[in-house]
Amino acid sequence: MDIKTVMVVGAGQMGSGIAQVCAAAGYKVYLNDLADELVEKGFKIIEQNLNRQVTKGRMTEIEKENVMENLYSSTDVIDANNVDIIIEAATENMGIKKEIFSKLDEIAPQHAILASNTSSLPITEIAAATNRPERVIGMHFMNPVPVMRLVEIIRGLATDDEVYEVVEAMAKALGKVPVEVNDFPGFVSNRVLMPMINEAIFTLYEGVATKEAIDEVMKLGMNHPMGPLTLADVIGLDTCLYIMETLHDGFGDDKYRPCPLLRKYVKAGRLGKKTGRGIYEYG
Ligand code: CAA
């Protein structure tokens, strides 16, 4: 199966990043969201990223235009009726995802692959909302998508080997490194990352050290590019809490209990960089 046309559902930070790398690799990409303003916002993020490449001399203005020309704005999922793969990057909520997948299943051509960029929700359960569970798969990109090399590819219970192989080849064509993972809560990435972030928030909550000190320990001591508290603000504290809850529900083990301070910040609307305030404050 040859992938030529892609739809990305959700034009936020992740969806726009995925659309950008797909368009840069030469695929025709529909960037879809519920309203024009949301899609426009996604296009702006992409244009800013590409402008930075042009300024740095890594891309010419013509190359940038070529990437932009591969991108099509979509506010109607009916556009999925002639694509080869749909990558869903909408809100992390099982109800919403099931609704999207069931609708896409009705519209998309029979051969089309339905992929989800979910960071922790079970692919098998999302697949069960469709009549083609064998063509449903997880394609988990990392933030920021244009920079991070990993794509975690998650096999649902029914995922076809052929579908896995097509998605693996596509990830490589995007310049990414695919890693195969089975469907368990949090997969590998967030099962390992989130408890570390949660524990960093516990050390802050218990007064073990200041936020700056905790981040400094992990940056200088473990060579992490950013400290876990800074990273939590980048990912979004609401997303971190949601993933911890998914792990806690999925495994039922106390070691995944979200830190009360994380809950408190989310309840206060301190969601991280995107709201100007999370664990840190942003100018
Ligand atoms: N979008 C596009 N490009 C970006 C970017 C963004 N949001 N942020 C930074 N960049 C680019 C910069 O333009 C720069 O590009 P060049 O090298 O081409 O000049 C490059 O990234 C490095 O940026 P900086 O020099 O400004 O800063 P840095 O050295 O601190 O690197 C970083 C930034 C790559 C984000 C680095 O800090 C990092 O790797 N942080 C950790 C990121 C991480 O862990 N991501 C995974 C999060 S978990 C996840 O995504 C899964 C989930 O489900 C929650």
TrEMBL record:
Pathway: Lipid metabolism; butanoate metabolism. Keywords: NAD, Oxidoreductase. The keyword NAD applies. GO terms for molecular function: 3-hydroxybutyryl-CoA dehydrogenase activity; NAD+ binding. Pfam families: 3HCDH (PF00725), 3HCDH_N (PF02737). The record marks 140 as: Important for catalytic activity. Its EC number is 1.1.1.157. Coiled coil: none annotated. GO terms for biological process: fatty acid metabolic process. PROSITE patterns: 3HCDH (PS00067). It is an enzyme of class 1 (oxidoreductase). NAD(+) binds at residues 10-15, 33, 92, 97, 119, 143, 274. InterPro entries: 3-OHacyl-CoA_DH, 3-OHacyl-CoA_DH_CS, 3-OHacyl-CoA_DH_NAD-bd, 3HC_DH_C, 6-PGluconate_DH-like_C_sf, 6PGD_dom2, NAD(P)-bd_dom_sf. Residues 186-282 form the 3-hydroxyacyl-CoA dehydrogenase C-terminal domain. Residues 5-183 form the 3-hydroxyacyl-CoA dehydrogenase NAD binding domain. Belongs to the 3-hydroxyacyl-CoA dehydrogenase family. PANTHER family: 3-HYDROXYACYL-COA DEHYDROGENASE FAMILY PROTEIN (PTHR48075), 3-HYDROXYBUTYRYL-COA DEHYDROGENASE (PTHR48075:SF5). This is 3-hydroxybutyryl-CoA dehydrogenase. It comes from Lederbergia citrisecunda.
